[in-house]
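User: Can you help me understand a structure? I only have the sequence.
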Amino acid sequence: MKIIEQPIQQADPVIQEVWRTKREIMVEHGGSLDSLFAELRSRQAQNPRLVKSSRAESGRQE
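Assistant: Let's start by predicting it. Here is the structure, written out as tokens:
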């Protein structure tokens, strides 16, 4: 059986940028998902083209 050399793992600059951006966003919100989602809901409320709420948030049940 022939031994296969492990490929050298190279950092993907696009993935690194995505991870860095995610970390920056979480730092802006103190690591709180509640804070992040509250800001997203606030931004949606200011833009009528975006979804305003889901059935679960509006209190309606099927």
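Now, to help you interpret it: The mean pLDDT is 82. DSSP finds three helices and no strands in the chain. Let me know which part you'd like to focus on.
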